[in-house]
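--- STAGE predict ---
source: upstream dedup step, 1 unique chain passed
mode: sequence only
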Amino acid sequence: QVQLVESGGGLVQPGGSLRLSCAASGRTFRWYNMGWFRQAPGKEREFVAAISWSGGITRYADSVKGRFTISRDNAKRTVYLQMNSLKPEDTAVYSCASPRSSDARTGTTPHEYEYWGQGTQVTVSS
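--- STAGE serialize ---
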């Protein structure tokens, strides 16, 4: 059974930084792409970043490009999201996700992902 567990969320002031982690178990992590999504209260879930199985391909939402960096450590079975220059509009529950197939593209939409973590809250406020 695939399990994804996020950590690293919290309260941070505007302009600050956080690093989120997502630890995976239940299958061969290095074979699968990974993604980060977020959902703010009253809004739909939106794409943040994605990374291919090798780390060679990364994709970002325009709203976070240049501020967030996705990376992975296949030996530790963990994907990271480094978030810098945080803004109040980044406040949301952040979830990592993994597709069902190892042949999946590095997707940017929720329906391309099968497995989801429980999420971690990020609040950007002074």
